[in-house]
């Protein structure tokens, strides 16, 4: 039995329309299709032909999906640090290195919005201009900003420039991969946002009685022993719920942030922040908890107006 091959594929006129490419030959050989079989069975030939077309369309679709990678830029004056991050980027299919800079001033002059940058890996200690000042200058030109530094002292400043992640050197592959996984989850979540309900009901202490809570009216939620107080702009409601249950209910609404173990606050009702104290519009003062401080500072940095002017100006 002679199977079709690239060298011996001389089909008769009835089935010469069969595509002569490697994938078709592989499939035909897999089914043990002979020249005689193809010639005598046109129906089977058509089935094979359209199967090949379908498979190729699917492969092209998968190829286009895989081609959608996040463009990365590395800015670090240490060459070995650049090479390490470049190797990590190359190892992850969803990333591709667009360019790198060992001179921060060159990066300042050359990076533009037309580059379509998704991720910038920014070192802090660099000559000429600090990573902090450079981050302020180019933050609007990248979707994600990752701080890479050997010093933990820059953590607070990193949130001030709206950094998405903070990687402390030396950076291991596992630490890098976990950070990218978090970013990809954030990337996928931003594409699949589903509108949430704008109200819910709670049971009262009276049988068969329920109270409607409009989410837009909630100022803060206070957790007590085995129940919660829901403070709204008109009154306070008590419900036999846990903080975790309410946090899950409100997790898809960007207006709420947990600031300590016993408080969830609506950010649009925050009047001011004084040190570690959050003052709400109803005059409640809530101390910022250590566990939730990092998360809150990230929110605060994102919502704080800053000038794009340089320090010299």
Question: Can you characterise this structure?
Answer:
The protein has ten helices and 15 strands. By secondary structure, the chain is of the alpha/beta class. The protein folds into three domains: about 15-65; about 70-190, Response regulator (Rossmann fold, 3-Layer(aba) Sandwich); about 200-305, LytTr DNA-binding domain (OB fold (Dihydrolipoamide Acetyltransferase, E2P)), CATH 2.40.50.1020. The strands form four sheets. It has a five-stranded parallel β-sheet, with helices on both faces. Strand 4 (about 140-150), helix 7 and strand 5 form a beta-alpha-beta unit. The N and C termini lie far apart (about 85 Å). Mean pLDDT is about 80; it is low at about 1-25.
Short structural description:
With 313 residues, the protein is an alpha/beta fold. It is 36% helix and 25% strand.
- N→C terminal distance: 83 Å
**Name of the CATH homologous superfamily of the largest domain:** Response regulator
User: In CATH, what is the class of the largest domain?
Assistant: Alpha Beta
Shape: flat
For the largest beta sheet, what order do the strands appear in spatially? 2-1-3-4-5
* Low-confidence region ranges: 1-24
Helix content: 25-40%
What is the tally of beta strands?
A: 15
Structural class: alpha/beta
For the biggest sheet, the summary is: 5 strands, parallel
Task: Explain the layout of strands and helices.
Blueprint: H1 22-30, H2 35-40, H3 42-67, E1 70-75, H4 79-91, E2 95-101, H5 104-110, E3 117-123, H6 131-138, E4 142-149, H7 155-160, E5 165-168, H8 173-191, E6 199-203, E7 210-214, E8 218-223, E9 228-232, E10 236-239, H9 243-250, E11 256-260, E12 263-266, E13 270-274, E14 277-280, E15 285-287, H10 293-303
Parallel strand pairs: 1-2, 1-3, 3-4, 4-5
Antiparallel strand pairs: 6-7, 8-9, 8-12, 9-10, 11-12, 13-14, 14-15
